[in-house]
Design goal:
The chain is an alpha/beta fold. The protein has three domains: 138 residues, NAD(P)-binding Rossmann-like Domain (Rossmann fold, 3-Layer(aba) Sandwich), CATH 3.40.50.720; 135 residues, no CATH class; 206 residues, no CATH class. Helices cover 48% and strands 10% of the residues. It is built from 17 helices and eleven strands. The strands form four sheets. A five-stranded parallel beta sheet has the order 3-2-1-4-5, with helices on both faces. A two-stranded antiparallel ribbon has the order 6-7. A two-stranded antiparallel sheet has the order 8-9. Helix 3 packs across helix 5. The radius of gyration is 27 Å and the shape is globular.
């Protein structure tokens, strides 16, 4: 087996001298270059600077209008101040590591750090009121400007994140990674990354036992594990490694982690927890040994009552606001072919009870009888059925589906207590009959008009993604999680509308929706 130093020479990387006294004589390889990441970093830096600059430049005319002064009074003099504040904001964002994906992957982390930057900018601008800005920026203006800048940055980064996920779903800007392990957990990790290309990972190979792996996913290359796993990974010419925790014993795992970190790899290690939300995980070291405390699911009666109250409020208000849209849609459906306006279909609800789901009709009246014509063209895996260009869908129906207007009548199901605003997709009885023992647990919560799967993987053909996201929601739902899904749904609908109406770079691929609730926007750097 070639050692790490020899492997580095093979791939053309300079090798540093061995660490004196080290039993393994570790050698550091240079951190791989990421030209795509540099391009993304430059784009995000530019977006942040221009967004912040625009907010400060607009602040002065808006404040003048509020004070009933000439709108552009003193505006030219404020340009240097705006440039200075925008530059300082970017610098502070850099110090807060807001350009590193490992920091901003979780949206809440990104927002917390943006808040810190906005508070710092407000304080600095207030202190500089007399000394630098010479009265052009009062403490009140500074506070309002910092708050507006934070909101604008959060919005622009969200749009950037959606664009980046679309590009990654198409195969661009992806990190080439190896998965260490060939066991069940490694297989699940490979499926996860392959099912969600918008995450930005491409599995180049797995490292482990070829015989064990070829019986699982022979389409993915396998590198036989030699005496030096780190050298095997470096030879694969990847920039990142994902380690399946259960694939290695503790000694081998610790040795491998040290070697990979020294070689400059991006290293991620799985937790082995599939259905536990991060909000239920507490870091609780034991004598400096990294350990986690797992909070149990907290499903109280009060939460259920609050969820029902939210459902009633949202459903009632939604029906009132959507009434004009429903009337116009009903008229369009009736004028098209004279058939019924509504479509009723049996679905499986809470505790496996069957109920009649109501939707606006989007297909021809005899769609059920013509099902046999399209069954063989199913684009989904598992028991689900989906055909993007279903010939049974009417012209009006295509618009209603793209805008999700056809689902508005389901608010009646919510009012009747058969559904919730947020929950797993209501399954057909024929689909439910094919679910495994774990997936039938989705009937422990009411089905929803929207949900985690609908937001994150609505157009993903993988049944594994459907199963994983539904079970995750069942085990981790909360009112806060529901609100996040509602917000994500609104963003998804806007993105889908822009994708249908805007230029090509805004259009989303058929395969995936553009929203990920937990992703941050700056998946760009080391």
């Amino acid at each position: 087996m070639t050692d790490l130093a020899e492997t580095a020479r093979i791939v053309g990387a300079p090798v540093r001298p061995a660490v004196e006294g080290s039993d393994t004589a570790r050698r550091r390889a240079p951190r791989p270059s990421h030209h795509g990441n540099r391009s993304l970093l430059l784009r995000l830096l530019t977006i942040d600077f221009l967004t912040d600059l625009g907010v400060w430049l607009l602040l002065f005319p808006a404040d003048n209008a509020y004070r009933r002064l000439p709108i552009w009074s003193g505006w030219v003099d404020s340009i240097p101040v705006a440039v200075l504040l925008a530059s300082l904001t970017v610098v502070l964002m850099w110090t807060q590591r807001l350009y590193q994906s490992r920091v901003c992957t979780v949206r809440s982390n990104e927002m917390n750090r943006l808040f810190r930057v906005s508070v710092a900018i407000a304080l600095i601008a207030s202190v500089w009121h007399k000394f630098v800005t010479q009265g052009a920026l009062t403490p009140f203006r500074a506070t309002v400007g910092a708050a507006c800048a934070m909101a604008a940055l959060a919005g622009s980064r969200s749009l950037y994140s959606g664009w980046l996920r679309l590009r990654r779903a198409s195969g661009d800007f992806a990190r080439q990674v190896c998965v260490i392990g060939t066991n069940d957990e490694a297989e699940a990790l490979v499926h996860l990354l392959n099912d969600h290309p918008e995450l930005g990972y491409q599995v180049r190979a797995v490292v482990g036992d070829p015989d064990e792996w070829n019986a699982r996913i022979p389409e993915v290359d396998v590198i036989g594990a030699g005496p030096d796993l780190a050298a095997d990974v470096v030879a694969a010419r990847v920039t990142g490694v994902l380690i399946a925790t259960t694939a290695l014993n503790a000694t081998d795992r610790e040795r491998l982690l040290g070697r990979l970190m020294d070689s400059g790899m991006h290293v991620q290690i799985s937790s082995g927890l599939n259905r536990v939300g991060r909000n239920r995980i507490r870091m609780m070291p034991l004598a400096h040994y990294p350990a986690f405390y797992l909070e149990p699911p907290s499903f109280s009666v009060s939460q259920a009552v609050l969820k029902r109250a939210v459902d009633l409020s949202v459903a009632a208000l939604g029906l009132i606001l959507a009434l004009p849209v429903l009337l116009l849609s009903a008229l369009a459906i009736k004028l098209q072919d004279g058939g019924p306006v509504f479509y009723r279909q049996e679905r499986v609800g809470l505790n496996r009870r069957i109920f009649g789901l109501v939707k606006l009709r989007t297909m021809v009246p005899d769609a059920a009888q013509r099902m046999g014509e399209v069954t063989a063209r199913n684009e989904r895996s598992g028991p689900l059925f989906k055909l993007a260009d279903d010939p049974r869908v009417t012209r009006v129906g295509r618009f209603l589906r793209a805008s999700s207007i056809d689902e508005i009548p389901q608010l009646l199901n919510v009012l009747r207590g058969e559904m919730s605003v947020v929950g797993p997709r209501p399954a057909l009885p024929a689909e439910f009959a094919q679910f495994d023992a774990d997936l039938v647990e989705r009937a422990l919560v009411p089905p929803g008009i929207t949900g985690l799967w609908q937001v994150e993987a609505r157009d993903n053909p993988s049944f594994r993604a459907y199963r994983r996201l539904d079970l995750f929601y069942v085990d981790n739902w909360s009112i806060g999680f529901d609100v996040a899904i509602m917000v994500g749904t609104a963003r998804m609908l806007i993105a889908r509308t822009l994708g249908a109406m805007g230029p090509a770079f805004l259009k989303r691929p058929k395969r995936l929706g553009p929203i990920q609730l937990e992703l941050g926007s700056s998946d760009v750097a080391a």
